[in-house]
Amino acid sequence: MTEAPWWQRAVGYQIWPRSFQDSNGDGIGDLPGIISRLDHLADLGVGFVWLSPAYASPQADMGYDISDYQDIAPEYGTLDDMDRLIAEAGKRDIGIVMDLVVNHSSDKHHWFEAARNDRNAPERDYYIWADPGPDGEPPSKLRACFGGPAWNWCERAQQYYLGYFSPFQPDLNWRNPALRREIWDMMNWWFDRGIAGFRMDVISLIGKDVDNEVFEEGPFLHEYLQEMHRETLRGRDVVTIGESWSVSRETAPLYCAKDRDELSMVFQFNHIKSQWHDIHGKWKPKPFDLVSFKDELFGWQTALADEGWNSLFLSNHDLPRQVSKYGDHGEYHERSAKALATMTHLMKGTPFIYQGEEIGMTNIALERLDQFRDLEAIGLWHEEHERGVSWETFLAGANENGRDNSRTPVQWDDGENAGFTTGHPWIKVNDNYREVNVAAERSRPDGIMAHYRELVRLRRDRDVVALGRFEGVAEDHPHVVAYLRHLGDERLAVVVNMTGEEVRFDPPETLRIEGEGLLATVEPRDRIDGPLTLAPWESFAIHAR
């Protein structure tokens, strides 16, 4: 077997702790709940867990507003619980990857409390401040990502502070070396507790140049990432995953090329954004365009073919459920869930499974504003309402692409509250939990979960899946995703019908192959020797030497 970093053969599994498993009946998932479900992850074969923020937080943005980086939110447990999670996961050969949220903190962090109370406090320069204009106005009309102005007036400080996401999330001033030292010390403290790495939230924002309003991939970004590597990562066998909504195929190697000494991989969203509306973004649904989708997926495979590493995903805590967004949560629910997994997992990169994806969990249809929990969606509604947008128009976009879709509780069984809690769940459980749940999937040897288990095994055991070169084919076909993987004399052909209709597909010569059928969603195939008639949501992979 070819040698490679452990994370190039591993599959990640993202846990949103609030919705994974509640252990004490308060309706909120917690760390002891996660520990109780580790055998489920071991059964899937995943190599590491990306744990969304479990730090102390007032939960204004569901944990992405951290008030203490070295403590655990009481509703999730204690530091002892965290140590036990790291240890118990380790016994199952699963690493714990923490979510590093250091573009901003919570406004309840003791740094910010000191900063706004005392202009002479050292923590004052941990944040970004600006004096009011002649008429008391903010320094610019910059809008926050979650709605409202990005510059927020602080009465006690008599200045504006920057909250690029929301007033509850003041931006940290990375220009201050003392602030960076605090972050390095905190990261090393977590590494010393045994974590396997960090997923770095909106890391592309830390190098911002506020004076010139350059926020994404600002001029200081790579200087800071290289300093981070020197101070925390060098010599450690860990994984670092850098999230960026702005990274391009051209700039991606700057983050993760071998000689850059920055990150292990990038977590980019260009394939996701390719399906968003040009003006209204994700909030106005539009028909799925497979050709533009493939252009991004295939283009990123090429861009990082020799320098860097891709993350592979279709869903996470910020995105809708993939079987609802790209597949079919009706007649072809199971088949489309398997096909989407096949398409994603057999590309080159590190795949991520978002909790519940392995059983085909779907979007939830919310009806009233009081059912929403997402700060982004609620903020958007207030802005849209002021502009005269109807509730029905807003609801259509929110129910298709809103973040609450992915944050409903994991559906473990068909019992009360889907086995998530014995109390009242913090957010509505999807009504389909009686049909879609882990217990039902576990009893099915050819179900969605079994398919995921096999995909995880193939990456772990087959060099061509983990490390093979990618070659996209039939790029302009409007209904089919097809590609090859190459490693030495090995080839792996992958074909996926991305529709609920029967499709005629005439594969190019490069895709003609005969060998071992590794997996299929409809019928086993061990060769491609001419035109194919693909059943709805059919997918298969063939390996040849």
UniProtKB/TrEMBL annotation:
GO terms for molecular function: alpha-amylase activity; oligo-1,6-glucosidase activity. Coiled coil: none annotated. It comes from Palleronia marisminoris. It holds the Pfam family Alpha-amylase. GO terms for biological process: oligosaccharide catabolic process. SUPFAM superfamilies: (Trans)glycosidases (SSF51445), Glycosyl hydrolase domain (SSF51011). Belongs to the glycosyl hydrolase 13 family. This is Oligo-1,6-glucosidase. Its EC number is 3.2.1.10. CDD domains: AmyAc_SI_OligoGlu_DGase. InterPro entries: GH (IPR017853), GH13_cat_dom (IPR006047), Glyco_hydro_b (IPR013780), O16G_dom_2 (IPR045857). Residues 14-407 form the Glycosyl hydrolase family 13 catalytic domain. Keywords: Glycosidase, Hydrolase. It is an enzyme of class 3 (hydrolase).
